[in-house]
């Protein structure tokens, strides 16, 4: 492939590359991975306890992309909204497994000569939380509300993109996002949260 061909492939919309993937083109899948891996890694890192976990989450997302290929939604020519939703779902599953693991560790008698492995995991999670008050507020939201708020306020998707990615109508997405913003702002106010974050949530594109 010459340089002109490489530029043409790089400029192809996700929808075109995805169509090539469905035809068995492995190079197209690699292009999609290279295009979205960094964005998905940042999203996964918000919830993952380690960089390695975040990398595993991203890999799982692309595995799910192929496994669920019959149900994948392309939003305005882009796979990113679907990938972000899947990334959030995978991250939640990993978090559940981690909680079950910590619960199991807590029931075991600690080794007098070894540090508790759970301590290191908890320290890593705390270190990755850039704003603990915001994280706490998000955890208080219902999963559906938290999901659309993260897609909108953090990932910067428009309301239409959120609705399409989540498979719900525009009015339902608007109502859910309004409810999520109102609840998050209330929680942030109660905990004296960062006002800039609350303003950003309110001013997210609709």
From TrEMBL:
What's the domain of life for this entry?
A: Bacteria
Does the keyword Amino-acid biosynthesis feature in the UniProt annotation?
no
**Which InterPro entries does the entry mention?**
RNA_pol_sigma-70-like, RNA_pol_sigma-70_dom, RNA_pol_sigma70_r2, RNA_pol_sigma70_r4_t2, RNA_pol_sigma_r2, RNA_pol_sigma_r3/r4-like, WH-like_DNA-bd_sf
Q: What region holds the RNA polymerase sigma factor 70 region 4 type domain?
A: 132-183
Alphabetized UniProt keyword annotations: Sigma factor, Transcription, Transcription regulation
- SUPFAM superfamilies with a match to the protein in the record: Sigma2 domain of RNA polymerase sigma factors (SSF88946), Sigma3 and sigma4 domains of RNA polymerase sigma factors (SSF88659)
The record's annotation in NCBIfam families points to: sigma70-ECF
The Swiss-Prot or TrEMBL record describes its family as follows: Belongs to the sigma-70 factor family. ECF subfamily.
Q: What is this protein called?
A: RNA polymerase sigma factor
Q: Which organism is it from?
A: Herbiconiux moechotypicola
The organism's taxonomic lineage, starting at the top? Bacteria, Bacillati, Actinomycetota, Actinomycetes, Micrococcales
């Amino acid at each position: 492939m010459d340089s002109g061909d490489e530029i043409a492939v790089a400029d192809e919309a996700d929808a075109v590359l995805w169509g090539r993937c469905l035809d068995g083109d492995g190079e197209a899948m690699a292009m999609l991975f290279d295009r979205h891996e960094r964005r998905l890694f940042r999203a996964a890192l918000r919830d993952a306890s380690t960089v390695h976990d975040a990398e595993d989450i991203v890999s799982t997302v692309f595995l799910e992309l192929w496994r669920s290929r019959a149900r994948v939604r392309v939003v305005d020519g882009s796979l990113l909204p679907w990938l972000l939703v899947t990334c959030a779902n995978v991250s939640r599953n990993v978090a559940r497994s981690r909680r079950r693991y910590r619960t199991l560790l807590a029931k075991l008698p600690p080794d007098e000569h070894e540090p508790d492995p759970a301590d290191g995991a908890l320290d890593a999670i705390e270190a990755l939380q850039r704003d603990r008050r915001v994280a706490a507020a998000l955890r208080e939201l219902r999963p559906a509300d938290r999901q659309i708020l993260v897609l909108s306020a953090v990932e910067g998707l428009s309301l239409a993109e959120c609705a399409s990615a989540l498979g719900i109508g525009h009015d339902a997405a608007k109502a859910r996002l309004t409810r999520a913003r109102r609840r998050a702002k209330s929680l942030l106010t109660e905990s004296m949260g960062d006002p800039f974050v609350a303003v950003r949530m309110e001013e997210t594109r609709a």
